[in-house]
């Protein structure tokens, strides 16, 4: 079945979402977030696009971009190739890091532009990763009024009068995010046990308990990249479900993401 043609923004402004393949994590350590932003800055300079907002989440990224001469597909390909190549070399992996087809929505009117900016800024708050948008390190909201790769002058020029303050202070329920549910692959407990042993050498929950926090986190991240559920990881490691989530999401990445 042929793909539906990507909608073109007359304004040149797009809300873009790049998601990890199988909804897997694309940021495991603080260095990964820094590297993605470096790739975004390099892409901005090479393509001539303007970055109006961004937010890096553990397994996906939201961007609001205004393109110049280079089409949105070429811009995101340039960005994705730069980051995925670096990520694969760092973690010794092969294959796709991002889902084959990124999402892009044209932004054509003021009201929608304000709602998109607000949505991107509030993503970590809605996900429970930060108490407020300005507290989340990996969001452009935090850097308003300070030098950053965001073209703040352009952002303020595009915002209707008074909308900048409104977007920065009011949370919204997501109507933009895809509401479809995606089921994770189902593994047997024995299969999860084998994957855990391969990831860290632990062949039982007791063995896992004696590993360092760093080794535990790397093993949990490895299982999550294989789309093993938190509940199954918890049973295999002897940790609580909430503890597994904290180690995976709130480890080096989100612990340093919040001021």
Give a concise summary.
The chain is built from 11 helices and 4 strands, in the order E-H-E-E-H-E-H-H-H-H-H-H-H-H-H.
Which helices and strands appear, and what pairs or packs with what?
Blueprint: E1 13-19, H1 30-47, E2 50-56, E3 60-66, H2 72-91, E4 103-106, H3 110-126, H4 152-158, H5 163-169, H6 189-200, H7 205-209, H8 213-225, H9 230-237, H10 241-249, H11 252-255
Antiparallel strand pairs: 1-3, 1-4, 2-3
Helix pairs in contact: 1-2, 3-5, 6-8, 6-9, 9-10
Write a structural description.
There is one protein chain. This protein has eleven helices and four strands, in the order E-H-E-E-H-E-H-H-H-H-H-H-H-H-H. Strand 2 and strand 3 (60-66) form a beta hairpin. It folds into two domains: 13-169, Transposase IS200-like (Alpha-Beta Plaits), CATH 3.30.70; 189-255. It is α+β, with helices and mostly antiparallel strands. Residues 170-184 have low confidence and may be disordered.
